[in-house]
């Protein structure tokens, strides 16, 4: 039988991209498929957890035994994450949150201008969801992701500290065939003074191994 070490534990996972509206028909987003986050949700469920997924717009389904909150923008995802805090033991931020959104969302479709070849869109910073969750007074055990192209360890450890996380799962997105929008992934997981390597495998297997590490470190939390 599978390891039931998360029995009764409330796990909240953000997954997928966010969509930042520009006007009623246009938005800013990214290529995140949500596969890694959804694989983590299934792995947590099979270990006995009560699982909630806060999902950006993705074309994936979940078992009905997983609670799903659908959101579009980073601000909606942020609100859903903060609302879930009283019921969260472990928070895993797998979503590819847009760093910026349009300062102004036009209520009507923007028209192409005949008299100019360029227009300017002003962007403002979105809230950092996991940093705000990790700094809440009732903070859960917090796990973040870091997609890096170089100096993976240094950047991941920097994010771990800056965002006040318990664990960070880093992947090298400069290596082909893994990570972003791919079927496979490989991760190096860092705690303040520990590291664990998860070799290249399909996202389901990588998710199972990552959840085992999370569950063990959660048990050992101080
Ligand atoms: O700083 P960076 O975007 O690389 O950090 C990635 C980690 O932070 C991921 O866990 C991601 O889900 C989370 N994040 C977030 N809210 C943001 C930006 C990133 O929760 N606005």
From TrEMBL:
Enzyme nomenclature, EC number: 4.1.1.36, 6.3.2.5
Q: Which family does it belong to?
A: In the C-terminal section; belongs to the PPC synthetase family.
- Ranges where the DNA/pantothenate metabolism flavoprotein C-terminal domain occurs: 6-216
Pathway listed for it is: Cofactor biosynthesis; coenzyme A biosynthesis; CoA from (R)-pantothenate: step 2/5; Cofactor biosynthesis; coenzyme A biosynthesis; CoA from (R)-pantothenate: step 3/5
Name by which UniProt lists this protein: Coenzyme A biosynthesis bifunctional protein CoaBC
As cofactor, the record names: FMN; Mg(2+)
Q: How is the cofactor bound?
A: Binds 1 FMN per subunit.
Binding-site residues, CTP: 99, 109, 127-130, 145, 159, 163
Please give the first and last residues shown and the length of the full protein.
186 to 407 of 407
What keywords are annotated for this sequence in UniProt? Decarboxylase, Flavoprotein, FMN, Ligase, Lyase, Magnesium, Metal-binding, Multifunctional enzyme
Q: Which reaction does it catalyse?
A: (R)-4'-phosphopantothenate + L-cysteine + CTP = N-[(R)-4-phosphopantothenoyl]-L-cysteine + CMP + diphosphate + H(+); N-[(R)-4-phosphopantothenoyl]-L-cysteine + H(+) = (R)-4'-phosphopantetheine + CO2
- Please name the GO terms that the record assigns under molecular function: phosphopantothenate--cysteine ligase activity; phosphopantothenoylcysteine decarboxylase activity
The role this protein plays is:
Catalyzes two steps in the biosynthesis of coenzyme A. In the first step cysteine is conjugated to 4'-phosphopantothenate to form 4-phosphopantothenoylcysteine, in the latter compound is decarboxylated to form 4'-phosphopantotheine.
Region Phosphopantothenate--cysteine ligase: start and end of each range? 11-222
